[in-house]
């Protein structure tokens, strides 16, 4: 039998409606999946970026306290917007100062911090231990300050952008 009669390929010019609907459905599903993952990826980038900036700010404050041989105690202003500063608290988080950290991204929140005094002592580069937790839709990152002055960053639950989970 002739193959052209079985498949009727002589009269076909393009795709059928069913084939077109399948392609459009697949493209829509992949686009929806990609957009949701892109949003999660952006959130994790913002969280990591803010945590790294806070780590750099605290490292700079620690080095300054050590260099000047002075005490640098942290204060926290919670809410929206939130900020963290050294020594003298300010009324708001507006403005720019070397002694003030305010996040660039509003979706990153100051979820938790040590309620006791926390900061750096210039003598022997020691510190008053504590922690700061930042979170958003991507997860939570904990910045830990040890009594010996070591600053480290870890993830609360699962690894976020290469930042490993905190050890219990």
TrEMBL record:
The keyword Transmembrane applies. InterPro entries: N_methyl_site (IPR012902), Pilin-like (IPR045584). One of its GO terms (cellular component) is membrane. It holds the Pfam family N_methyl. It comes from the Bacteria. SUPFAM superfamilies: Pili subunits. Its main location: membrane. It is a single-pass membrane protein. It is found in: Membrane. The chain crosses the membrane at residues 15-36. Signal peptide: none annotated. This is Prepilin peptidase-dependent protein. Keywords: Membrane, Transmembrane, Transmembrane helix.
């Amino acid at each position: 039998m002739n193959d052209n009669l079985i498949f009727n390929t002589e009269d076909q010019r393009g795709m059928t409606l069913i084939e077109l609907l399948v392609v459009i459905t697949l493209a829509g599903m992949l686009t929806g999946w990609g957009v949701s993952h892109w949003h999660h990826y952006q959130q994790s980038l913002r969280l990591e970026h803010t945590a790294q900036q806070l780590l750099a700010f605290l490292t700079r404050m620690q080095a300054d306290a050590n260099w000047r041989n002075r005490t640098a105690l942290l204060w926290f202003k919670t809410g929206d917007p939130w900020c963290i500063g050294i020594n003298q608290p300010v009324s708001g988080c507006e403005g720019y100062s070397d002694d003030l950290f305010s996040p660039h991204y509003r979706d990153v929140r100051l979820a938790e911090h040590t309620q006791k005094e926390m900061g750096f002592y210039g003598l022997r580069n020691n510190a008053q231990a504590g922690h700061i937790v930042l979170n958003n839709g991507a997860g939570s990152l904990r910045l830990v300050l040890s009594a010996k002055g070591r600053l480290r960053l870890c993830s609360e639950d699962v690894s976020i952008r290469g930042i490993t989970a905190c050890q219990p």
